[in-house]
Design a protein that fits this description.
The complex is a heterodimer. Chain A is mainly alpha-helical. Chain A contains 11 helices and no strands. The N terminus of chain A is likely disordered. Chain B has a two-stranded antiparallel sheet with strand order 1-2. The chains are: A mainly alpha, B mainly alpha.
Chain lengths: ~300, ~325
Amino acid sequence: MTTASQPVPATKPSLRSDGEPLGPRVFRGILQASIALSILVLATLLIDVVLDGGSKLSMDFLSSPASSSPANAGIEPAILGTLWLIGVATVFIVPLGVASAIYLEEYADPDKWYNRLIEVNIQNLAAVPSIVYGILGLAFLVRGPIELGATILAGGLTLGLLVLPVVIIAAREAIRSVPQAIRQGALALGATKWQTIARQVLPASIPGIATGVILALSRAIGETAPLIVVGAAVFVTSNPSGLDDKFTALPIQIFEWISRPQEEFQLLAAAGIIVLLVILIAMNSVAIFLRNRYQQKW
Amino acid sequence: MPSITTPGGSSAGAPKSGSKLVSGRSRRGERLIQWILAAAALVSVATTLAIVVSLLAETVLFLREVPLTDFLFGTEWAPTFAEPTFGVLPLVAGTLLTTFLAILVAVPLGLAAAVYLSEYATPKVRKTLKPILELLAGIPTVVFGYFALTFVTPLILQDILGLDVQGFNALSAGLIMGFMVLPTIASLAEDAMSAVPHSLREGAYGLGSNRMQVATRVVFPAALSGIVAGVVLGVSRAVGETMIVLVAAGSIANLTGDPRDPVQTMTAFIASIAKGDAAVGSITYQTLFAVGMLLFLSTLIMNMISIRFVRKFRQAY
């Protein structure tokens, strides 16, 4: 419908009428209260954890192994186990995720059924319950055809498979945001398709990809259920020494402490949660920093 | 904001025009590289296949011992007893109960947050609020479980509200799971509402609507497919969530609708069996896969519905 071309105010907030009647004002209040409630729950959770676990945090806690006496129990093997798992997952998902993303964005013809299948499949995989990945790890990596046993390698690969769709989706977005003109310029200068991708598109999308990888890894760090199914050990008193070692991880250790009825162990769990959250916040800060520092405005 | 983004819209166009730009000349290795990249993309398909195969193999063995109807419609779940029974309904009931409670929290709060962020918040407010809500999504679920077990149940439910709940109960697990699911619903719904063209809003304002009317009668219906996608995906998340229910809802397979009782969900059962180290080949080991199959299929259906609805709203605008 064509109306007289009266210049419309550019932003929608300016359209607000100031004498709002009661109904809409209540409605707005309800919306604000809903958000406030969500934030309140988040804040309560964080404060509760810090109050519970703060007193247990110490250098001894960070540098001692698990123990059946809560006074001596620490979290060192769990922290190292988590680092090992994340290391394995990173080595696995970065090349695979980036390669998949390049294929889907630069090579795949979206009208072909098999490419659409890959795409829908990745979207679905991103929403498969994490415990199902644990079953996959148990059946294929720990016991079945590959038979790695309940090792760091099996656990890390399971976590890698779990977050691979996240990496692919993030990398695709980063690659897609590189303007077409860059590709056309490179091709016009005689570069082949792969040269264009490897020397122009990929370097330009690295910040976006790195952000996506870090966010994916921070999801992997908090995953507990798949590691339980894969067979993480719950009582580990020695630090992991290699890929074929048995392992525990931060969330597993936290879960183990939560499951014990004694109050002391609950507090240890809270202290473990603080450590886990600090690691997550650090990783997210790096991701946000990368995004703000290197984000290209084309 | 004048920028009306159409998420996903560019994905269809870009690669196609990219491939047209290739010169006929091909350097050695270019083909090979393309095959390697395609192989990497196929790993995700292989993952799905591997999931199906690993679930199916043991499920078939399980169904040889237990008739399918006994499994699906039986009301006693006691696979580790001396005289085991394998009726999965108590686990399904536990899953439905906690999911229902979570949705009861997540849908109203999540949609309210989405409407506020998309229709009311100034860009600055939105820039602060969105990361905070995303933070909720980033909290590991075992942490939510801890919170439900050690704070919500004893302090909020028992002391403040004076409810007669047990130490492990579906109520606290379900409510807290709602806050875990909330960002999923809020972010998909907000995407959909932001994608609604501004001309629709301006038309409604021009006819004298106020902001509430625009939000509820124009933007909300116009974004409905995206909102449905978010809710369905939220349900799928809640069904598949393990740690909150494992920690806070207990481990008694209980055919009950009473949220004050302890329940066991499908996911929590899988985790507890896996923790117990069942012997390979035993029927207990196989139940893990049979329940896993049921879980995978139900979330798969919901994910497909959600993906379909997302596509619908992306096509519309």
